[in-house]
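Budget justification aside, the reviewers requested a transparent look at the raw inputs and outputs of the sequence design task funded under Objective 1. We therefore reproduce one unedited record. The lines immediately below are the structure tokens for a 167-residue chain.
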């Protein structure tokens, strides 16, 4: 038998901690955010992406996944494990945080696009935008088919951090 002396203050702390711990799983399940954002892994634009989402008044209201190529990760046969990750994370974000929207931000001078298509668009911004748009439209169509309850937005970001909506 324990010869422990538990005073009222210690007992109150113990009960408060147990009550708080019991509440955590329910609180975690109840968390919601509006969007899942999918960006490229490129180190040059990490801070710009956060500023972009903050500028859209999304601070603390989105989940974020970074995959090489962003939209390309969803559909390119060059990156099969990224394909699975892209779609799996949409399902996870819906389940855990009840997202309503997917926002994908590609960027200019993307190495993943160069690998997938074997083309460098440094001198052809219009062609680069069209290449990204074609991929984005594939993703949007698949998203509408597999998750018709979600809306979507697709952007391309310049290396200066400025983004424009493409789809």
């Amino acid at each position: 038998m324990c010869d422990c002396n538990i005073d009222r203050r210690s007992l109150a702390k113990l009960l408060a901690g147990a009550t708080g711990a019991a509440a955590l799983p329910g609180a975690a399940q109840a968390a919601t955010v509006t969007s899942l954002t999918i960006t490229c892994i490129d180190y040059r634009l990490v801070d710009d992406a956060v500023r972009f989402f903050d500028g859209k008044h999304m601070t603390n209201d989105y989940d974020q996944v970074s995959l090489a190529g962003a939209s390309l990760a969803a559909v390119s046969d060059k990156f099969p494990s990224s394909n699975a990750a892209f779609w799996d994370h949409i399902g996870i974000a819906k389940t855990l945080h009840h997202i309503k929207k997917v926002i994908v931000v590609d960027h200019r001078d993307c190495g993943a696009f160069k690998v997938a298509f074997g083309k460098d668009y440094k001198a052809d911004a219009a062609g680069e935008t069209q290449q990204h748009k074609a991929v984005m439209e594939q993703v949007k169509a698949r998203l509408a088919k597999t998750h018709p309850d979600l809306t979507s937005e697709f952007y391309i970001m310049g290396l200066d951090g400025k983004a424009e909506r493409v789809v």
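The two ends are 70 Å apart (CA to CA). The beta strands are 35-39, 62-66, 101-107, 151-157, 163-165. Computational costs for records of this kind are itemized in the attached budget.
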